[in-house]
Amino acid sequence: MPSMTKSKVLISGASVAGPALAHYLRRDGYEVTVVERAPGLRDSGYAVDFRGAAFEVLAELGVLDEVREHDTRMGGTTLVDEAGAEVGELPAATFAGELEVPKRELTRILHRLTAADVEYVFDDSISALGEDDAGVAVTFERAAPRRFDLVIGADGVHSMVRRLAFDAPADAVRHLGMSGAGFSTANRLGLDRRGVLRLTEGTATYAFSAGDPDRMVVSLSFASASAELDRRGRDVQERAVREAFAGHGWEVPRLLAEMAAADDFAFSSACQIHLDGWSRGRIALVGDAGYCAAPTSGMGTSQALIGARSLARQLAAAAGDHRTAFPAYEAEVRPYVAENQAKGRDGAAMFGGGGERAGDGTA
Predict the structure, then answer these.
(1) Are residues 309 and 261 in the same domain?
(2) Would you tell me which of 19, 119, 125, 344 could form a disulfide with 294, CB atoms 3.0–4.6 Å apart?
(3) Domain final residue, candidates 235, 253, 270
(4) Residue 12 near residue 160, CB atoms below 8 Å
(5) PANTHER family from the entry (predicted)?
């Protein structure tokens, strides 16, 4: 890449890894465009937490103090039995890490950090990629085709960049044996920056309240054979949840009724991404798109930030030569990812997951 200051990079995804990477690359002289399928900044996602070296990245980005202002200050989680009696306690760090903030706040902070000198294209998505010796020809669903020197997929576990550019094997997406619904409802349990967790064989009922004392967030998770339900409609998903929790006591019947009325219902399965390589020519993956560790790892956001920093650093060290930078980035981050994915599998097992299953067709 002869002139680093003229190099153009397209990043797919405007959540965490994408904007963080955009900041680093723009600082190093790249012209950066971020394309995002959503019509605007995503307001979904309840909270994200940070651990370890992620704090170094937030400090380098210059947003650590601002992020801390949104700390949910979550306390511990009470373990209860079938009747709701307390049987144990989990420390705050189990779910909230060293710092927890609403995801929407982190997304907004990273967007503000980059909006002035990064081009954002919302309500659009990549539909085709064609690489040659000079760059990558990109076709969009809405906008006119353009060319870029590099394309980076930071577009999550269901990455379109991965689908288009990587011949991923059937076992690239590995279901961890757990699916579940999330929604918010009235804080009838009186939770005050705390959580409550009820575990049975094959199910987990988790509720917590952070920030808004009148509302609590509920997660109803259960063992599942595949991630097939992710692609089904809400009616089918709700039916699966009700079947998994049929006959359960404590607050579960009331929570199932409130689930049906929730306007923020979301359903997902715990999956990991396992690839032999995170780059193909001028195209690379960062964060969940390349190496999702599953939400049960508690490391997704930290991993996204650290991956973005590493990729930018390696490009800078290689003077923009992707042929050197991409393998160096992978070599640096892969051991960290392997450790986090092990945590993700352990977490899924704790929440009732039935173990790792490969090749469920979600790639």
Answers:
(1) no
(2) 344
(3) 270
(4) yes
(5) MONOOXYGENASE, OXIDOREDUCTASE-RELATED
- The DSSP symbol for 5 reads G
pTM of the predicted structure, to 2 decimals: 0.90
The reply to whether 24 and 122 lie within a common domain is yes
* Domain boundaries, position 179: 77-97+174-270
- How many beta carbons lie within 10 A of that of residue 82, not counting itself? 12
Answer yes or no: do 266 and 280 share one domain: no
**Phi-psi map region of 253: left, alpha, beta (phi>0 left; psi -120 to 50 alpha):** alpha
Tell me the residue type at 301.
Answer: T
Residue type, 303: Q
The average pLDDT across 131-148 equals 97
Considering its fold, how many domains does the chain have in total? 2
Q: Are residues 154 and 281 in the same domain?
A: yes
Read off the DSSP letter of residue 186.
Answer: E
* H helix runs in the chain, sequence order: 17-27, 54-61, 64-68, 93-96, 103-114, 160-165, 234-244, 252-261, 288-291, 300-317, 322-350
Q: Which two tokens stand for residue 211?
A: 């920030």
Cα torsion through 56, 57, 61, 62, rounded to 10: -30
189 belongs to a structural domain: yes
Looking from the CA of 148 toward its CB, the CA atoms found within 13 Å total 27
Q: Look at residue 44 and tell me if it is in a domain.
A: yes
What's the DSSP call for residue 4? G
* Residue 357 belongs to a domain: no
138 close to 145: Cβ distance less than 8 angstroms: yes
208 and 315 in a common domain: no
Nearest CA to 125 out of 138, 112, 113, 114 is that of 138
**pLDDT tens track for 296-312:** 888 999 999 999 999 99
CB 188 within 8 A of CB 229: no
- Cross-strand bridge partners of residue 203: 200, 222
In a domain, 362, yes or no: no
Q: Of the residues 270, 301, 330, which one is the last residue of a structural domain?
A: 270
Q: Which DSSP symbol is given to 84?
A: S
Distance CA 76, CA 194 (A): 6
Same domain, 84 and 219: yes
CATH of the domain at 129: 3.50.50.60
